Amino acid sequence: MIKVSPSIISSKLENLGNEISACDEAGVFSYHLDVMDGHFVPNLTMGPELVRAIRRSTKKPLEAHLMIERPDRYYKNFIDAGSDVLLVHQECVVDFRKLISDIRTEGAGFGIVVNPDTPFSKAEKFLEDSDILLIMTVHPGFSGQKFIEYVVPKIEEARKYIDDHGLETKIEVDGGVTDVTGKRIIEAGADIIVSGSYIFTGNIGERIRTLQGL
Ligand code: DX5
Ligand code: ZN
Q1: Ligand 1 contact, 30 CB (< 6 A)
Q2: What are phi and psi of 154, to 5 degrees?
């Protein structure tokens, strides 16, 4: 069964508890929480308080996708709010060695994220220390965007590198994932798929089961 992580920002937030119950019932792997600061990306979304509310609504792992300029300043707020894994962009200007060690000291997992135009080589040196490599297939900032096809070879490249080096890092893909693009991603070697608008604009349970069966 393919591991699916629903992107909560695409859900009907006025009905969040029920949306999460539907996802839990469908057996999702984790929840993907998109944190945007209006600087690193041109949009604003959730902060730690919403993460805390989601933490109270499910026992599944929560991954916070930090699209913020200063993850070094805020990582602890998101861990304290109940995030299990923090996903940090390679494009951020921070001391990654220190940040990874600080996140691990707090007991959370770490994932490195690459934008569509960032080559895989930029993520290579982080892989040994990363639980997850998150490959973006849209430019971060908004849900409901079109899947960017030219990223697919990067997924294949990452799959080969991780297998050749015997690494444990899981490949996760985020952006424009549907039943159609999801199939391409799985064939290219993804372990976990994030999906937002596809899941939450239809029957949640059915859509999740479709993705799980790809
Ligand atoms: C984009 C976010 C994605 C997005 C997913 O900035 O990181 O997680 O919300 O939503 P869809 O699946 O609609 O592209
Ligand atoms: Zn995301």
Answers
A1: no
A2: -70, -35
